[in-house]
């Protein structure tokens, strides 16, 4: 009764130099349309671009940054607005922005791009502010939000350009880490720490080369760390490669990291990161000769121990011919290995002026360049990065790129999808009734769908796709609340809320079990598909996430025969709607399978048509659906 969700078929042609993915036939088991999606929405007259979401599970509030507005919404039902605050651009500023050659009614507005919680009542907000990035503190009391009205320069903390990709986080000690462009022209990319011990990247193409920043997060590596290592901030971006000779601009996905306690150098790298290192991410299908070289988003799945952290990234290929997206996962241990033990890449001059980047095989100074201050360094009297020797600092300044790329787990994607452009991802870790752990991916598309997918030891499976909006628009931000069991989505026109699962949508035991949805199981007592309840007695529950095996389900599915009287010469439609898009249906009449050999029959998704019926067509027609 089981069919693999995804089949990879390759078309190899002797004439074309490379193997091309002709088909990635990964279809969602179900498509849930907008009406049936159990979706709650938030829209506001005159307000658009709901691109920034901040979950506050303690206060049950979803904060939303939009164009010239900030909202506090009820996390349980986002249709309920608790409060709002508007932050508009003055006429003068709009004129000034227009005079610099920007579009008055779109670009010269204030797009709220950054929302961070400083403490329970204090937040930090930044907006593009008509190409003059500006930040302010925001006070939250009983759900009521109010800007302090003491704006400060947001240069480096927030982009100038509203359409530009950007990322930032606030770490518990109140320091803001941001990755954006530092100037009006957008030619000075920067990873900046502000609101405390300010530090930034060098303006050098070897550090950052036309990057598009997508995400960053902190990993608490100092916890239970025998080496006395520091917490690290990981930044994900796509940049133009400098290490390859290529006649076209080759984009490359990167992971960079910096140490939280970095204070910069004393002489070399003064007020700059002494711990900035980056590596290439590899997301590719081994059988294909191309790589997914644009990273669109990364979700950091944090579990009990920081060593088990997994980075889930959404990737697309640069050359647009292939309509394919992929999700790749990367393990903390591999990343750590590469940064803390791997070789560096270095430039060598070939011929007159040509520079090639190769593995650096010379002597590497100690302490290790780019490493955080750990017990080893402290033993050598290097208590902070300010104590580090110039040799180490000069080396890391010139060699920020690691030689080894970071391979994805199992050297293949966890999901490959043809015909969809994936934009954002969040991942929930769920325990099934079999006590096994399943990482459920929720992936947004540029057409407004949310795919829910799992990878079972290499087998890719899309449980369902849910249509999030009435008309297509891209998913621009995703937030997950595991506690509430909700996914929150920001888009150009609205915010929507969708449950991680709606078990009651599964019609019967077969449907419930074949869905392989770890959130749901068939309750034999109540005779319906319900959310797995860990406190209840699970003996009466049927679930088979790993194998999708419904053999424990009571035998059903034989529907009562229905009698149809028809007029000779007319066309008759017989309905048969399979519960799953992975099901294959066939029609049996008088005990033999009907073949669509002649124009007598037309088979379609939801049934078939018999044309020009006559007495010879009388019989018992059975539709059999096999998944
Ligand atoms: C959510 O809030 C809206 C607006 O207040 C209300 O109309 C709707 O009934 C609420 N839905 C639920 C399920 O509580
Ligand atoms: C803002 O939203 C509108 C549609 O509502 C869209 O056309 C525009 O591109 C968005 N602008 C940005 C900067 O995201
Ligand atoms: C580093 O810290 C130790 C112990 O606190 C101290 O004795 C030593 O002088 C410090 N070294 C430097 C270079 O500051
Ligand atoms: C994906 O995006 C590309 C480039 O923006 C576009 O050409 C293509 O039609 C999109 N594909 C789908 C399925 O939306
Ligand atoms: C789970 O089961 C327990 C015991 O049967 C019951 O009291 C509780 O209400 C259930 N919880 C949910 C969320 O259904
Ligand atoms: C319908 O079937 C009858 C015989 O069963 C045949 O005579 C007639 O030509 C058919 N009509 C069409 C439109 O095919
Ligand atoms: C089914 O069997 C009956 C009785 O043998 C026969 O009259 C009829 O034509 C058959 N129908 C078809 C579609 O073969």
Automatic annotation (TrEMBL):
<dbReference type="GO" id="GO:0007411">
    <property type="term" value="P:axon guidance"/>
</dbReference>
<dbReference type="GO" id="GO:0045499">
    <property type="term" value="F:chemorepellent activity"/>
</dbReference>
<keyword id="KW-0393">Immunoglobulin domain</keyword>
<feature type="domain" description="Ig-like">
    <location>
        <begin position="554"/>
        <end position="627"/>
    </location>
</feature>
<keyword id="KW-1133">Transmembrane helix</keyword>
<dbReference type="InterPro" id="IPR013783">
    <property type="entry name" value="Ig-like_fold"/>
</dbReference>
<dbReference type="InterPro" id="IPR001627">
    <property type="entry name" value="Semap_dom"/>
</dbReference>
<dbReference type="GO" id="GO:0001755">
    <property type="term" value="P:neural crest cell migration"/>
</dbReference>
<keyword id="KW-0597">Phosphoprotein</keyword>
<dbReference type="GO" id="GO:0030215">
    <property type="term" value="F:semaphorin receptor binding"/>
</dbReference>
<feature type="domain" description="Sema">
    <location>
        <begin position="29"/>
        <end position="500"/>
    </location>
</feature>
<dbReference type="InterPro" id="IPR027231">
    <property type="entry name" value="Semaphorin"/>
</dbReference>
<keyword id="KW-0812">Transmembrane</keyword>
<dbReference type="GO" id="GO:0005615">
    <property type="term" value="C:extracellular space"/>
</dbReference>
<keyword id="KW-0217">Developmental protein</keyword>
<dbReference type="InterPro" id="IPR036179">
    <property type="entry name" value="Ig-like_dom_sf"/>
</dbReference>
<keyword id="KW-0221">Differentiation</keyword>
<dbReference type="InterPro" id="IPR016201">
    <property type="entry name" value="PSI"/>
</dbReference>
<dbReference type="InterPro" id="IPR002165">
    <property type="entry name" value="Plexin_repeat"/>
</dbReference>
<dbReference type="GO" id="GO:0030335">
    <property type="term" value="P:positive regulation of cell migration"/>
</dbReference>
<dbReference type="GO" id="GO:0071526">
    <property type="term" value="P:semaphorin-plexin signaling pathway"/>
</dbReference>
<keyword id="KW-0732">Signal</keyword>
<comment type="similarity">
    <text>Belongs to the semaphorin family.</text>
</comment>
<keyword id="KW-0524">Neurogenesis</keyword>
<dbReference type="Pfam" id="PF01403">
    <property type="entry name" value="Sema"/>
</dbReference>
<dbReference type="InterPro" id="IPR036352">
    <property type="entry name" value="Semap_dom_sf"/>
</dbReference>
<dbReference type="GO" id="GO:0005886">
    <property type="term" value="C:plasma membrane"/>
</dbReference>
<keyword id="KW-1015">Disulfide bond</keyword>
<keyword id="KW-0472">Membrane</keyword>
<dbReference type="InterPro" id="IPR007110">
    <property type="entry name" value="Ig-like_dom"/>
</dbReference>
<dbReference type="Pfam" id="PF01437">
    <property type="entry name" value="PSI"/>
</dbReference>
<protein>
    <recommendedName>
        <fullName>Semaphorin 4D</fullName>
    </recommendedName>
</protein>
<feature type="signal peptide">
    <location>
        <begin position="1"/>
        <end position="21"/>
    </location>
</feature>
<dbReference type="GO" id="GO:0000122">
    <property type="term" value="P:negative regulation of transcription by RNA polymerase II"/>
</dbReference>
<dbReference type="InterPro" id="IPR015943">
    <property type="entry name" value="WD40/YVTN_repeat-like_dom_sf"/>
</dbReference>
<dbReference type="GO" id="GO:0043931">
    <property type="term" value="P:ossification involved in bone maturation"/>
</dbReference>
<keyword id="KW-0325">Glycoprotein</keyword>
């Amino acid at each position: 009764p089981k069919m693999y969700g995804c089949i990879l078929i390759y078309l190899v042609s002797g004439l074309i130099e490379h193997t091309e993915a002709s088909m990635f036939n990964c279809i969602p088991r179900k498509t849930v349309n907008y009406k049936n999606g159990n979706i709650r929405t938030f829209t506001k007259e005159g307000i658009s671009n709901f691109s920034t979401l901040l979950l506050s599970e303690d206060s049950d509030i979803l904060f939303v940054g939009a164009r010239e507005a900030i909202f506090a919404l009820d996390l349980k039902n986002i249709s309920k607005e608790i409060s709002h605050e508007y932050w508009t651009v003055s006429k003068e500023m709009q004129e000034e922005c227009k005079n610099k050659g920007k579009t008055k009614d779109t670009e010269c507005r204030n797009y709220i791009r950054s929302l961070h919680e400083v403490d329970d009542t204090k937040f930090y907000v930044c907006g593009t502010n008509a190409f003059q990035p500006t930040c302010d503190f925001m006070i939250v009391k009983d759900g009521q939000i109010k800007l302090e009205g003491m704006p400060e320069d947001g240069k480096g903390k927030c982009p100038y350009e509203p359409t530009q990709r950007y990322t930032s986080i606030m770490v518990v000690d109140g320091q803001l880490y941001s990755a954006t462009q530092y100037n009006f022209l957008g030619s000075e990319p920067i990873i900046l720490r502000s609101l405390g011990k300010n530090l930034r990247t060098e303006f050098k193409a070897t550090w950052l080369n036309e990057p598009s920043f997508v995400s960053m997060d902190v990993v608490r590596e100092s916890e239970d760390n025998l080496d006395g290592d520091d917490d690290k901030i990981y930044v994900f971006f796509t940049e133009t490669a400098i290490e390859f000779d290529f006649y076209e601009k080759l984009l490359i996905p990167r992971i960079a990291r910096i140490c939280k306690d970095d204070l910069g150098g004393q002489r070399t790298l003064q007020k700059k990161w002494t711990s900035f290192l980056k590596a290439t991410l590899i997301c590719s299908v081994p059988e294909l000769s191309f790589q997914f070289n644009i990273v669109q988003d990364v979700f950091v799945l944090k579990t009990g121990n920081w060593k088990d952290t997994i980075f889930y990234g959404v990737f697309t290929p640069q050359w647009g011919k292939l309509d394919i997206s992929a999700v790749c996962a990367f393990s903390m241990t591999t990343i750590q290995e590469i940064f803390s033990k791997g070789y560096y890449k270095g430039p060598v001059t070939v011929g007159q002026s040509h520079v090639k980047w190769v593995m650096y095989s010379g002597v590497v100074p100690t302490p290790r360049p780019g490493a955080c201050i750990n017990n080893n360094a402290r033993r050598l009297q290097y208590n902070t990065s300010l104590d580090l020797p110039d040799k180490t600092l000069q080396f890391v300044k010139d060699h920020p790129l690691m030689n080894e790329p970071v391979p994805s787990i199992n050297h293949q994607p966890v999901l490959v999808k043809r015909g969809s452009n994936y934009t954002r991802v969040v991942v929930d870790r769920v325990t099934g009734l079999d006590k096994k752990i399943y990482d459920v991916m929720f992936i947004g598309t540029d057409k407004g769908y949310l795919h829910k997918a799992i990878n079972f030891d290499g087998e890719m499976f899309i449980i369902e796709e849910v249509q999030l909006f009435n008309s297509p628009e891209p998913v621009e931000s995703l937030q997950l609340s595991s506690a509430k069991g909700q996914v929150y989505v920001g888009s150009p026109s609205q915010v929507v809320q969708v449950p991680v699962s709606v078990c009651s949508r599964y019609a019967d035991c077969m449907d419930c079990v074949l869905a392989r949805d770890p959130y749901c199981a068939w309750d034999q007592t109540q005779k319906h598909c319900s959310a797995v309840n860990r406190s209840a007695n699970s003996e009466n529950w049927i679930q088979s996430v790993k194998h999708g095996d419904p053999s424990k389900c009571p035998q059903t599915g034989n529907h009562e025969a229905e009698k149809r009287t028809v007029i000779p010469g007319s066309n008759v439609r017989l309905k048969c709607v399979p519960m799953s898009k992975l099901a294959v249906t066939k029609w049996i009449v008088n005990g033999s399978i009907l073949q669509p050999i002649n124009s007598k029959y037309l088979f379609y998704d939801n049934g078939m048509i018999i044309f020009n019926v006559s007495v010879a067509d009388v019989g018992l027609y059975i539709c059999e659906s096999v998944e």
